Amino acid sequence: MIRISQLKLDIHHTEADLRAKLLRLLRIREDELISYTRKKQSLDARKKPQLFYVYTIDVKVKNENGIKKHFRKQKISNILFQPEEKEYLLCACGTRPLAHRPVIIGTGPAGLFCGYELARLGYRPILLERGAPVEERMKDVEEFWSLGVLKPNSNVQFGEGGAGTFSDGKLNTLVNDPMGRNERVLEIFVENGAPKDILYQNKPHIGTDILVKVVQNMREFIISHGGEVRFHSQVTDVVITQEDGLEKLSALKVCRHLSLKEKRERNRAKEAEKKAVQDLYVLNTELAVLAIGHSARDTFAMLRNRNIPMEAKAFAVGIRMEHPQEMINLAQYGTAYDGELFAASYKLTAKLSDGRGVYTFCMCPGGYVVNASSEEGRLAVNGMSYRARDGRNANSAVVVTVTPKDYRNFVSSETFSIIGENWEMDAPLLGVEFQRRLEEAAYQAGGGKIPVQLFKDFCENRPSHGPQEIEPQMKGGYTWGNVRAIFPEELAKAIEEGIHSFGKRLKGYDRPDALISGVESRTSSPVRILRDDTLQSKAEGLYPCGEGAGYAGGITSAAIDGLKVAQAIVEEYSPF
User: What backbone torsions phi and psi does residue 547 show, to the nearest 5 degrees?
Assistant: First the structure.
């Protein structure tokens, strides 16, 4: 195998152009080339508007030894022979028997990927999801966006696929896993219907429309390999027992929310009173993966009450900002490219005079701002893109970091009067309280709709009454108002200063008519559920996992953590 890196071609090149360049570079004939595979593709825009794709290509040829001898003499640095491949593949090597089937709580990326690998290896996992299957969830979310009818357990945050299902579907991550889990995650996506180009693109992207199909296929794989997925099933308690001086998980208490059809059938059959809308049962298990997601606030409180160790962690809050996608294309590419490239993206950071960090997050080229609420009387926003990324606006979160030390300044005095001197110990739940206060302010600012404001009005702390050049591109109702009033002034100033700083690096970013909406409060979990070197909590058999547990920040990193927990399980336990 020959690996060629830094192979540059104009973005308009054809497959024949790529093949011809490989032949010229290796100095071989057409019939000597067996095959080639893209390993990486990135965009070089340093000489805009002239743009290039830069490739890493693996090539198979007939006379590799002869080519090797020739190029070793010339010492060409971008040609490598027999590159090392890091293939990650789990094997069931544990010997400890399981008395009950393993349970995974949550079907976001962490839970799905953990369950996928456990099912593949014969562990027959049970996946519990408080929300609906993704096809039903899609209808619930569309109904919420069109009619404002919120279902607390089936929305943008809860349901099969997790919060990432209604997002941009970005798969790039800062995690550099030496075991090769990154590649395994991408392979599983492709196995279940994702486009093959995510295997080599520098910034792979699926899109929410493709993610829905992938999630369904992963569920079907789990079931076909002996697993089980129980929807509308919320874990309300964990049963911890003492054994030989150690705390061990022994069971889960599950509340199964009945569907409307099931409620009607029961009432008709008089098997339950009209008020009975739930099934409560105990599920015995000595192994459960806590892949609960960053919005499972009631589950955080339950675990805290059961003395499961957790700590507060820094997270970020802020706004969504919209610009014309054409403006971003011009800034990044030097010209507008219709159909030749994906809509341009950006990533901006700034350190402010007070030491706070402000940065863009979850940038959605050609995407939509969406109402991502999950609690009545509270409003949160997120960004979402389809695979084509062909919307007229680009949007991104602009967020400022907050830490547990900030909560004392932002959370109500009544809360602190109750907590008293123990506020630092209870800081994890204060982070949740802080998020909720901001979401309540956002709900009030928009009367239940997404509040929108022009950036110039945000700077002057006055309500807006309509758009100028940029029309909002949103899923869910919106209204004009004062987004700045949602925030403590210290945070509002930080957001404003950060946006002006970004404007110096991306022309037009701080334009007066750019759109501000809020509140972006679900960037990550405000808590970290502690785990040891075996990836277990203080209670043996309880495995905190993914973004909700504080060990990931996005689809890919959560999926990687799911694989990591699956590995810990299969190295300890034998298949069920």
Answer: -70, -40
Angle among Cα 206, 209, 212 to the nearest 5 degrees reads 90
Q: Which residues of the chain have pLDDT under 70?
A: 73-75, 259-278, 336-339, 408-427
Tens of pLDDT, residues 61-70: 998 888 887 7
> Residue 519, preceding bond cis, omega within 30 degrees?
yes
CA 13 to CA 522: how far, in whole Å? 41
- What are the Cα distances from residue 153, in Å, to 126, 133, 168, 526? 19, 11, 22, 20
Going from the C-alpha of 430 to that of each of 156, 158, 418, 444, the distances in angstroms are: 23, 22, 12, 21
CA 68 to chain centre: 43
Q: Distance (Å, rounded) from C-alpha 158 to C-alpha 292?
A: 9
8 Å CB contact between 379 and 519 = yes
In angstroms, how far is CA 64 from the centroid of its own chain? Answer: 42
CA angle 473, 477, 482 (to 5 degrees): 85
Residue for token pair 């030390």: 405
**DSSP summary character for residue 561:** H
> Please, is 274 exposed, middle or buried when counting C-beta atoms within 10 Å of its C-beta (0-12, 13-18, 19+)?
exposed
For residue 343, what are its two tokens? Answer: 């809509």
Q: Which residues have a Cβ under 8 Å from the Cβ of 366 and sit 6 or more positions away? A: 325, 343, 385, 388, 389, 390, 391, 392, 393, 394
Q: Angle at Cα 383 formed by Cα 379 and Cα 384, nearest 5°?
A: 125
What tokens appear for 277 in the block? Answer: 């809308």
Separation of alpha carbons 527 and 310, rounded Å: 7
**421 near 450, Cβ under 8 Å?**
no
Question: 84: number of CA atoms within 13 Å, CB side?
Answer: 5
Per-residue DSSP letters for 200-252?
A: TBSS-B--HHHHHHHHHHHHHHHHHTT-EEESSEEEEEEEEEEETTEEEEEEE
Q: How far apart are CA 143 and CA 129, in angstroms?
A: 20
Three-class SS state of 466: coil
Is the CB of residue 64 less than 8 Å from the CB of residue 21?
Answer: no
CB-based contact 560:545 (threshold 8 Å):
no
CA distance 530 to 511: 43
Q: What is the pLDDT of residue 419?
A: 45
Element (H, E) at 20: helix 15-26
453: left (phi over 0), alpha (psi -120 to 50) or beta: beta
Residues 6+ apart with CB under 8 A from 488: 409, 410
Q: Identify the three-state secondary structure at position 170.
A: strand
